[in-house]
Amino acid sequence: xxxxxxxxxxxxxxxxxxxxxxxxxxxxxxxxxxxxxxxxxxxxxxxxxxxxxxxxxxxxxxxxxxxxxxxxxxxxxxxxxxxxxxxxxxxxxxxxxxxxxxxxxxxxxxxxxxxxxxxxxxxxxxxxxxxxxxxxxxxxxxxxxxxxxxxxxxxxxxxxxxxxxxxxxxxxxxxxxxxxxxxxxxxxxxxxxxxxxxxxxxxxxxxxxxxxxxxxxxxxxxxxxxxxxxxxxxxxxxxxxxxxxxxxxxxxxxxxxxxxxxxxxxxxxxxxxxxxxxxxxxxxxxxxxxxxxxxxxxxxxxxxxxxxxxxxxxxxxxxxxxxxxxxxxxxxxxxxxxxxxxxxxxxxxxxxxxxxxxxxxxxxxxxxxxxxxxxxxxxxxxxxxxxxxxxxxxxxxxxxxxxxxxxxxxxxxxxxxxxxxxxxxxxxxxxxxxxxxxxxxxxxxxxxxxxxxxxxxxxxxxxxxxxxxxxxxxxxxxxxxxxxxxxxxxxxxxxxxxxxxxxx
Length: 504
Ligand SMILES: C[S@@+](CC[C@H](N)C(=O)[O-])C[C@H]1O[C@@H](n2cnc3c(N)ncnc32)[C@H](O)[C@@H]1O
Prior knowledge:
Elements: E1 2-4, H1 9-21, H2 26-42, H3 47-52, H4 61-70, E2 75-76, H5 77-83, H6 88-94, E3 98-101, E4 104-107, E5 109-118, E6 121-130, H7 133-136, H8 150-158, E7 164-170, H9 176-181, E8 185-192, H10 195-207, E9 213-217, E10 229-234, H11 261-270, E11 274-289, H12 294-305, E12 308-318, H13 319-329, H14 336-351, E13 354-365, E14 372-376, H15 386-400, H16 404-409, E15 412-414, E16 418-423, E17 433-438, E18 445-448, H17 450-458, H18 465-476, H19 480-496, E19 500-502
Parallel strand pairs: 7-8, 7-10, 8-9, 10-11, 12-14
Antiparallel strand pairs: 1-9, 2-4, 3-4, 5-6, 11-13, 12-13, 15-19, 16-17, 17-18
């Protein structure tokens, strides 16, 4: 099955012009209900926002659209007709956006504004998805099509934005990653096993005037057999779910495999579908099994591909916390059903000796320069990291192509977001702890010893690395060659992670 945008093109264009006229945007909604109600909505609570819309604010076109499509409250046919004058109630019914229940009109789909900053700058779209738990008021359908969630934002923020001919989004859901990729790819192929997801994604692309996405039905790489892409992105259904009777299997998060095998399968297929030099970026979970470190397990998956790879582990949850998180995510509240599912989750983990589950991001590149980074990064990150990821890969390429001798001839400077902490025992002249901190990127911090602190402090681009090391060796009264050999791996690491950079 192959879907293209434009199936209901004309009514979607009418909807678009109504949403524009209503000024149905993130900023306008925040102005209507205030920042506290906005924060409550992010916590899954709609009462403050619905109270703010009981007065005149709720009668504006944006207010009516927010009530029905964001808060899941019914409105009258008259109110909807005023809010969507070009599309009208019949058009909204035909598009499958609403249903009529007596004199009330109810949302069938969630539809909300979405604003973002990605590698190409700021933008805003409207995104349709299935109604969330707030509106449904209970457990979700197994074929639920997810809107833009935390994981979606993580991946879209990580996406590097270099121009490519073709990009692939596996498990497109509401289409959000494909739409971001469409900003820098000439064409995007978006796949999913859910026909409903593809219909909704096609609606979203058309609603936002994005016409370079082709939607294909099928599992993982099946719909793209024999094809290669300059970029592959995937927020795959990585949630580990017991394969037991009576445990719901949500399409949006569960790929139907045992344990973390789905993520391993996606990684396994990348080498056959990336063009030379192409990049894949995914999110994933990995199990900590029988004393085997989960990040090392992810490292084995990427090593088997032969591709250059960088895996970042952001979080580790013990098996019990992981189970609670995902049972709750499906809309099941604490009670007997929750306890039954909890037991099934723990049984499943116990069978495989799983004690914890790691979450993180994987970047794989179809180059063979020997990049194999496995990192744990737990500092809070704000905003998109796509630019930083591209810069890190380029910096790794730069330093790995140079011998120690050549690096010695380079002039390096400190990045402007770097600061240094020094801690002293009271009364001591010398610090006991020195730490280098990065304000941007992954917000890394690195411990410094005396030699490295002296080197970093002298990196203002004026002297070559070799000249700085020679001066430090003299000062510390140590052998220059030995100091250089000791510092070189740290210099390479500081360049790769963006603390130091070569003078342009
Ligand atoms: C976590 S959602 C991601 C949705 C969207 N890409 C995002 O970032 O928000 C995973 C998606 O993968 C789809 N999916 C599940 N199993 C799949 C499979 N075997 N092959 C392709 N897609 C699959 C689901 O239907 C769902 O839309």
